[in-house]
């Protein structure tokens, strides 16, 4: 600030502050982060290593972390134990989970984003009232409507579609899309309209490409909840052919002989798609946030 | 290309704000029309109604011969340049410029050709594959222009397209837009709150206040014959000095206007030129005096000179602006106040009751000391006179 000459004799002060945290501070930060990371990663690592070890070496305290006598036997074992009409086939569980989750995620992205666009940008009678209803629905837990829903859909038990139909339209997703769309500059919609795009093409060419972050987070959230869905499949399926992975993993755990190596192998196969989806979309998410220079 | 006609167009926002009570205006085919006025006067509203982005509450809007009230923006065949440019951030410059053509489902080689041509015209060729965030403000502005001209639309609508640029770039783009418009000959509505921009660009300028057009005329006409006090005060920089005075008729046909202890005389010849002045009732009248109608004449004597005290001197190289305290009351028309900047009001306070600060533009510049008493000569042939309603006396004008 000051341009006044320094009094003679005063040594020039070298300012080192504001060049980032000090070394000690940094060390503490790293320490905290490392501890946290260990807490989060350790169980997954434990499961992964355990899934590759013979049963007697799995639940072995800290030694469970030691990778020794590794093999894929446990995986083969899981497949072998689900290999008849009575137990169901492992690939059927996987297929069920995949079909149901993919339909819920993709169908949900389409339906909920379009609904949110209608709430955020189109003008229609009763819009605010309906939006309020949607927001109220966000706080209603699924457990509260499970029983009425059960009676409603009782005729469709043991199908794929009964497992995804109730979850495609999702109030929370609509709400997430809505808040994001409302925050996008309205001028871009207007520019698109003047450029000759109707509501559909404005949505498709302008809104959607600018909304990658919210599409990514809704994908992650929806996949997480649908992949782990438990209560509804318990109510609606009793044939192994239509049972998803979370149901079978619990069945498997309760079935003697309890082989922790195989249980962990099942667990790894269950978690793998979650990790993949998360990693793929998280990168997209971070990228989009970094590149969204919306103001022209 | 088409004309645009407003027939009693009115806008009431859903919350009850009457932004525009009524606009009647015909913008001719190929004309460059500027809407100018203070903030909140309804310029953007008028433009957005034209674009179809706002509903028209009543009245009729024609583009060409068609009533377009009920038409959506995409059916109106107009292109718009937004203040913040509204470039699509996820598209390259080429995609931005070609978007409207793509929406028209033109074949892609035709789109390519037209975008290349527009880019050439606007020196954007080297930037076609960049995204907007990697462009400077001026370049973005050009892309926004480019997006409009590839369309070859019936009309261009521009809402303060230069207000985000720095002063130098603004002057340059002003000239370029003007040239472009004349080359293309496309009907253009241009909104600005900057009267200099309005004066330099428009074929005609519509001066707006409170949602009404006060006067619509070519720039020179606005300057020379403002229809009312508002236009007089709005157009011109530095702005016109407006003050209250008292009018007296002399037996010889001349007119005297009270200026503090002194009088300004208007010769019978001039009185005859200003319609309505010869018969104007004696008494209060509002007088306007352009800063350039004052001259520094230390030795002058007579009935056209005034004695005032210098307040502030601005030396501007080829001219000087002398702010001086005059023994008259500033015309307190609320209309004029709209545009009065805080500094003006401060100056008036400084001057005290019964006096006001006025400005003279002296060419060549004269260096005067602050606080010095000086004698200025008023060109009384170029005075502006306004009645009690603020309407100008003088040649008949169409609003
Ligand atoms: N969506 C709206 N709802 C209610 N009133 C509005 C709305 N938009 C504008 N107005 C009001 O209408 C009047 C005109 O606004 P408008 O934006 O047309 O002014 P403007 O001349 O463009 O001003 P500026 O130079 O500041 O852009 C203002 O009084 C404003 O408050
Ligand atoms: Mg505006």
TrEMBL record, chain A:
Gene Ontology CC, one term: plasma membrane
Family matches, as SUPFAM superfamilies: MetI-like
Keyword NAD annotated: no
UniProt KW keywords: Cell membrane, Membrane, Transmembrane, Transmembrane helix, Transport
Annotated protein name in UniProt: Carbohydrate ABC transporter membrane protein 2 (CUT1 family)
An individual GO BP term: transmembrane transport
Keyword field contains Membrane: yes
Segments forming domain ABC transmembrane type-1: 94-281
Family listed: Belongs to the binding-protein-dependent transport system permease family.
InterPro entries from the UniProt entry: MetI-like, MetI-like_sf
Bilayer-crossing regions: 28-49, 93-117, 129-152, 164-184, 214-235, 260-281
UniProt-listed PROSITE patterns: ABC_TM1
Mode of membrane association: Multi-pass membrane protein
Record-linked Gene3D superfamilies: MetI-like
TrEMBL record, chain B:
PROSITE patterns assigned: ABC_TRANSPORTER_1, ABC_TRANSPORTER_2
Any GO MF annotation of the entry: ATP binding
ABC transporter domain mapped to chain residues: 4-235
Example of a GO biological process term: carbohydrate transport
Range of residues in the leader sequence: none
Domain of life of the native organism: Bacteria
SUPFAM superfamilies: MOP-like, P-loop containing nucleoside triphosphate hydrolases
Gene Ontology annotations for the cellular component aspect, listed alphabetically: ATP-binding cassette (ABC) transporter complex, substrate-binding subunit-containing
Organism, scientific name: Humibacillus xanthopallidus
Protein name, UniProt field: Carbohydrate ABC transporter ATP-binding protein (CUT1 family)
Pfam families: ABC_tran (PF00005), OB_MalK (PF17912)
Record-linked InterPro entries: AAA+_ATPase, ABC_transporter-like_ATP-bd, ABC_transporter-like_CS, ABC_transpr_MalK-like, ABC_transpr_MalK/UgpC-like, Mo/tungstate-bd_C_term_dom, OB_MalK-like, P-loop_NTPase
Alphabetic keyword roster: ATP-binding, Cell membrane, Membrane, Nucleotide-binding, Translocase, Transport
